[in-house]
Amino acid sequence: MNASLYWRCRHALILALPVLAAMVSQNIMNLVDTAMVGTLGDTALAAVGLGGFAIFMFQALVLGVGTGVQAMAARRMGAGEQTGMAEPLNAGLLFCLFAGPLLSLPLFFAVPAIYPWLNPDPAVIEEGSPYLQWRVLAITFMGMNWAFRGYWNAVDRAKMYLFTLVTMHVLNIILNFLLIFGKFGFPELGVTGAGMGTAIATAFGTLMHFYLAYRHAFHAGFARIWPRPAVMSRLFRISAPSGIQQLSFSTSFVVLFWIIGQIGTREVAAASVLINIMLLAILPAMALGLTTASLVGQSLGQGSVRFAHRWGWDVVRLALVMLGVLALPMWLVPEWLLSGFIHDEQTRALAVTPMRLVGVFMVVEAFGMILMHALLGAGDAKRTMITAVSLQWLGFLPLAWLVGPGLGGGLLAVWLTQGGYRLVQAVVFVGLWQRLKWARAKA
């Protein structure tokens, strides 16, 4: 590795570490949250699990604002526009302030009618509906938090995001303890308390972001520059495709589990573990992807398409090494890895070969994940969204149904199809990156 490549990879890794730490923090918080609710029984666990998944779908369109803020702010940082660097952040917060309530208020009243579609069990509906209603009320704050995350990543200050997120998680755990179990004079609200605690902690996180931005981004125009119509329009142009892509991603998991459910219950149990392990293992690629988006945007802001192009490939190299190391246990000892999650021998046997496939396609994920975020960082969100959504809904999911329940191929056939889909998507993103049309995108 030459000195220049070493420096660039080292720089990308240093920027990505706080982002990765924040993502790990999120997963740890989810595990603690699940453990607390799990003491209330299977009904409570199912209610929170389904509610958490539903809220991810409901707020996906608002969360796309983080991509727009990051792409635009990174360009300005690269161009040296210090006094107006936070204008995209102001635009993102204003967008969330209007769009958030338009989503959350109708959904709040619609949840009791929507929840039976997620699960027909009356007990799960009774506990899950108020939990989801509390989570829905926090959509505006969650959107703002993602706007701040995009800004902090864009200006290479991800530590601000990490500090806020960890504080928010600690508060969430404390509130859950008090409100779920009714400790120290607080009412015992069970699953509803878990939703309330998460909503309050999310709002507190937004207040922290405002405080930190006032201290560290006021000079860049935070809360001082009213976003121009052209900036609002550009933000929407970049953010809307990203939000649609996230909505597609979350909804596709519902459809995938429905497809696997047509094969059998053991297959659903095995797939649940496989997907959770995969999502945990690709966190480094996601963190590096967000970092790549900032580095590409900054380079384009400096007027250097060549450096922006190099950043994409340099971070891919770094991701290949990291994901390759993480994939080794999946290749070599899948039974041992699965034994901590799956205790039924027949179910575990079903998951062994798909687990090896997850390891193989982790390397492919390095190309797809990094270059997808690089394209988003360049502001080429529409083309990226069309590619991802088309391959998912017109390719992978129909084929997964055909080879799985349709032709009787089972879980292994579905997983092979998923691997093929990931490979095709990575090849397409490589082609889009090499064609350099993204260099003409405006952000």
Automatic annotation (TrEMBL):
The chain crosses the membrane at residues 44-69, 89-111, 131-148, 160-181, 193-214, 273-297, 318-337, 357-378. This is Multidrug-efflux transporter. Its main location: membrane. Keywords: Antiport, Cell membrane, Ion transport, Membrane, Transmembrane, Transmembrane helix, Transport. The keyword Membrane applies. The keyword Transmembrane applies. InterPro entries: MATE_fam (IPR002528), MATE_MdtK (IPR050222), MdtK-like (IPR048279). It is found in: Cell inner membrane. It comes from Natronospira proteinivora. It is a multi-pass membrane protein. Pfam families: MatE. CDD domains: MATE_like_7.
